[in-house]
Amino acid sequence: MSSAQGIDLDAVQRYMAGRLAGFDSTITAEKFQTGQSNPTFLITTSAGNYVLRRKPAGALLKSAHAVDREFRVQSALADSDVPVAKVYHLCQDPEVIGSDFYVMEHVVGRNFSDPVMGDISPAERGAVIEEMSRVLAALHDVKIGEVGLEDYGPQGNYFARQLGRWSKQYRASEVEPIEDMDALIAALDADLPEDDGQSGLVHGDYRIDNMIFAPDGSACRAVLDWELSTLGHPYADLAGVIMQWQMPPGREGRGLAGVDRAALGLPSDAEFVDRYCARRGLAGIDRFGYYLAFSFFRMAAILQGVRKRGLDGNASNPKHAARLGAYVPEFARAGLAALARA
Hints:
The protein has helices spanning 9-16, 67-76, 122-140, 158-173, 179-190, 234-245, 261-264, 269-280, 288-312, 318-325, 328-340, and strands at residues 28-31, 40-45, 48-54, 87-91, 101-105, 200-202, 211-213, 220-223, 230-232. The protein has 342 residues and is α+β, with helices and mostly antiparallel strands. It has two domains: 9-105, Phosphorylase Kinase, domain 1 (2-Layer Sandwich); 122-340, Aminoglycoside 3'-phosphotransferase, Chain: A, domain 2 (Alpha-Beta Complex). The strands form three sheets. The protein has a five-stranded antiparallel β-sheet with strand order 1-2-3-5-4, covered by helices on one side. The protein has a two-stranded antiparallel sheet with strand order 6-9. A hairpin with a 6-residue loop joins strand 7 (211-213) and strand 8 (220-223). It is globular and about 60 Å long. 42% of the residues are buried.
């Protein structure tokens, strides 16, 4: 058996032969270092490169690692104003490599690991963030009925639903009590905003490192990592961007805290929110602090799950999982601070 860091290449080759060009002969694979949730591989074939994403091995939380949902939403958005990678095949037979997987286009371009984007000019940074705003607005303007996603998520109060879901996920991954996390969950539940009727397609983890941009420009070529996408409230995605920017800069935090944004050509949080509102014809957003606090909570719950998978031996990169898990208390504290400003 040939393998590449946990994937049976012989099994992939046998299964995909006849289904996609290039799999009728020897293939190679290289595991991407990113992609903590669903292990991702660059597959090289005689016909060119592909990307394969699979569920991780081992026991998994219910509804997590939904590669079938990633495949479906990217298929639905293929002809929309939201750039996505072309998807080719979904395998839901776990007997092939031990878990579900799908194969998609390898999109060539630039990927920025954090919003500082240190290797480009201020003007280029501004153009990339402007494109980030455009794509986010386009995503939230998608008419779900026209792309066949009417049943892609439940109806009702999105924040109440998500608070319940991620609280359960957090408790299932809990290693030891975190006082600030307990306080944040209780505060968010006590202060839930009324359902304002806004609902549409949301990405669930919209940030710059989940995007591929043109090699020589600011155009977005693909939004990646759709595992957390669903039907929900658009402010959750917007608040998720601002949440990430409030983290420390660098490889782990990937934020903009303490950075001189004006000197770097980057907008302030308020300027980004205003540009988004202008694109969508919104007068403004009330109680944005609640949506920001919710984003900190949900990311803390996700990182707790990453940490638990690392401890259980199921993480794609156990050391990285441990480092990410260490951020859970910090995210909880930031969520409480945001809620206090709401």
